[in-house]
Design goal:
heterodimer; A: alpha/beta; TIM Barrel; eight-stranded parallel β-sheet; 16 strands; B: alpha/beta; Pectate Lyase C-like; 3 helices; elongated; binds flavin mononucleotide
């Protein structure tokens, strides 16, 4: 045998081991992969943007000394009782069913202590959350599980869910393992079935109907509550414009990175646009209608830090929402449960089978033993700390840019590290004045 | 008897007055004149009152009703009695799409025909239709009863959960997972009661109906049923 240098085995860039493993999984089980969480692939994101900071032409504010306000008003357009939050970081809608009762309580505790709101989710309003959330947004979803006029009236705002970033155009699912007696009862369904929630609202289609639906909800609640419309990042320019036309007080825009409790992996990874690409289009729609800052814009999808908050706001958002990051702050995916993650065939920070209801951290489960592991008081404190840190981080950046309110951050404070992000976010590539596509239309 | 002229005094005033009656009231009978197809008439009532609308209504009349009896002396637009919790809504004429959608309780009586998606996602409401119903009715219906004296359109009861469907006439087609089921004595009794309360006992007898319900085959995902999803 001749001796020659053998190149190492070469993996295909197309048929990677991960791709092949998924083909084998599909062939063995005959069902698509369902999981929780958001997109796992790399996407253009806030990390691709940088703040410029102050210079000779712009002077900074003194950290800790000079004020940088963080409050936000939501629902000032039509609602008699708009919402005032101390910080512009809200907790996104996550269903009871997906999350345990104590986890919902912890979200309420943490958010209230930090001066912000939480949001219900598919499955209705729980006492745990209403009891502990000073400001609670009540979701109005296609499934209408648990929907009733009393909860509408004891909510502080109503969020009509049209879409979600993880699955624009998709409905919900909650697999049998998580349909406990209580969940089944709240949803009026048999226990233990695989439950699908509809992807469209049962009693309206299109923007003209939506306008009448919003009017009905306002009538039922005597025009008191702010009405949000939540859209997935699909066609943000038109969807924002149509939501405004239909009479929304607030538009909630969720990019494709947005988490979910349970969705097909193919949906999470292949449908929708990154939040970075969505925000400028939504802001442009609001500006074109003369409604920027009059109809508030809340954005979400992969927000992790005060830097992300500041960047989203510099692009024109009035506030942000967090889902996944809040769960991690509560203790989800914590390496302290590594041994148990291993038993589930996964590892801390990669665990995403939230739909199976076996969460070692006791957060995305209905199993009484597992959820008893989770301490809602401690969880609430951790969430409050995290929200405070994000706020401080955003203020630090805003002061460095010379802003005395987070809302004063602007696209001119930003540059981009990549051409893609420059084109999507509409800010110049670092070191140039080039915004690709700026004169070429969207 | 309170008489409210909707054309003259506006929707907000009507609903605000009706909502103010929450709890106890002496003003138990209301008449709404000149509805002219306005939307959200008498939506969100929570009081044991009787409201008669003298004409046809637009979208979502009596939406989320609790306790009240609302009578429509005309036809009703889309989503009449949507998400009703309790009480009674009676329509003399026809009802447009999504009548009784997601309703959780109470009784909806439609003396004419109902359009498509009647009883969609119903969650406990009882619906009695004297005429026919359109396609995709009782889609994903979770619980409650739908009684149809006439015929049903295509895809009745698609992806049905535990709601009970009774149709006297023909059914153009059944939706996925919806099958005909045996009429047992308890169903006859249930139907007799519904016909009576639905002001239809002089029009039909329980024995003339067929019962439809869920085959429960789609309750747990199975790839061999993929074509049905
Ligand atoms: C566990 C979980 C449950 C969710 N449930 C809902 C829901 O019921 N309704 C909804 O509109 N969005 C739901 N979402 C999406 C969030 O509201 C939000 O759009 C998303 O989490 C934001 O992205 P992020 O997770 O990257 O912060 C859920 C997300 C998670 C992680």
């Amino acid at each position: 045998m001749t001796d020659f240098p053998r190149p190492p085995p070469r993996y295909s860039a197309t048929f990677t081991p991960a791709v092949n493993a998924e083909i084998r999984r599909a062939a063995a089980t005959g069902i698509y992969d369902i999981r929780g969480g958001g997109t796992k692939r790399h996407l253009p994101h806030f990390d691709d943007l940088l703040f410029l900071g102050a210079s000779i032409s712009r002077y900074p504010l003194e950290g800790y000394r000079e004020k940088c306000a963080t409050d936000v008003w939501l629902g000032t357009r039509f609602a008699k009782k708009p919402i005032h939050l101390e910080i512009p970081i809200t907790i996104a809608g996550m269903s009871f069913g997906a999350l345990s009762g104590p986890a919902k309580e912890a979200l309420g505790r943490g958010a209230s202590a930090a001066g912000t709101s939480t949001t219900t989710g598919d499955g209705g309003m729980t006492e745990e959350e209403r009891g502990h959330s000073k400001t609670l947004v009540y979701q109005y979803l296609p499934s209408r599980y648990g929907m009733n006029p009393d909860d509408l009236r004891r909510a502080d705002a109503i969020e009509i869910v049209v879409g979600q970033g993880a699955k624009p155009g998709g409905g919900g699912m909650l697999l049998g393992q998580k349909i406990s007696d209580r969940v089944a009862n709240m949803r009026n369904l048999p226990k233990g079935i695989d439950q699908r929630s509809a992807c469209r609202h049962p009693d309206w289609t299109g923007p003209d109907d939506l306008e009448i639906k919003i009017m009905e909800l306002r009538e039922i609640t005597d025009w008191e509550k702010p009405i949000y419309v939540k859209i997935g990042g699909a066609r943000p320019y038109y969807d924002t414009a149509l939501a405004v036309k239909a009479g929304a007080d607030v538009v909630v825009l969720d990019g494709m990175q947005g988490g979910t409790a349970a969705t097909q992996d193919v949906f999470i990874e292949h449908v929708g646009m990154p939040i970075l690409a969505c925000i400028p289009q939504a802001v442009k729609a609001l500006q074109d209608l003369g409604m920027h800052r009059k109809v508030q814009l809340i954005v979400s999808g992969g927000i992790r830090s005060g830097a992300d908050v500041a960047k989203a706001m510099a692009l024109g958002a009035d506030a942000v929402a967090i889902g996944t990051a809040a769960l991690i702050a509560l203790g989800d995916n914590d390496p302290k449960w590594e041994e148990e993650y291993q038993k589930l065939g996964t590892t801390a920070d990669a665990y995403d089978d939230w739909h199976e209801g076996r969460d070692p951290a006791g957060i995305t489960t209905q199993d009484p033993e597992l959820s008893a592991r989770f301490d809602p008081v401690l969880g609430g404190r951790r969430l409050k700390n995290y929200l405070k840190v994000m706020t401080l981080e955003a203020q630090t950046i805003a002061r460095a840019c010379g802003k005395n309110h987070l809302h004063n951050l602007e696209p001119e404070d930003l540059c981009s590290l990549t051409i893609e992000a420059a084109a999507m976010a509409g800010v110049p590539l670092a070191g140039t004045n080039w915004i690709p596509g700026r004169n070429g239309g969207f | 008897m309170e008489i409210y002229d909707l054309a003259a005094d506006g929707l907000r005033g009507l609903n605000a007055s009706l909502h103010a009656l929450k709890g106890t009231t002496n003003q138990t009978a209301w008449q709404v004149k000149n509805p002219k197809g306005a939307h959200a008439i008498a939506a969100g009532i929570d009081a044991p009152i009787d409201v008669t609308v003298l004409g046809s209504t637009g979208y979502y009349c009596a939406g989320m009703n609790k306790q009240a009896t609302v009578r429509i002396k005309g036809s009703a637009g889309p989503g009449v009695a949507e998400n009703m919790m309790s009480g009674t809504v009676i329509i003399d004429g026809d009802a447009s799409q999504y009548a009784g959608a997601t309703g959780r309780g109470g009784l909806l009586v439609i003396k004419g025909n109902a359009s498509s998606r009647c009883g969609i996602s119903m969650k406990g409401i009882e619906i009695v239709v004297h005429g026919n119903i359109g396609h995709m009715s009782a889609f994903m219906a979770q619980s409650g009863s739908l009684v149809v004296l006439g015929d049903a359109g295509e895809a009745l009861g698609d992806s049905l959960y535990e709601a009970r469907l009774f149709v006297r006439g023909s059914v153009k087609s059944l939706g996925a997972d919806c099958i005909e089921k045996e009429m047992r004595p308890e169903h006859i009794a249930l139907l007799a009661d519904l016909l009576k309360r639905g002001e239809a006992d002089h029009l039909a007898r329980p024995e003339e109906f067929r019962r439809y319900g869920s085959a429960r085959k789609l309750y747990t995902f199975n790839i061999d049923n993929a074509a049905a999803y």
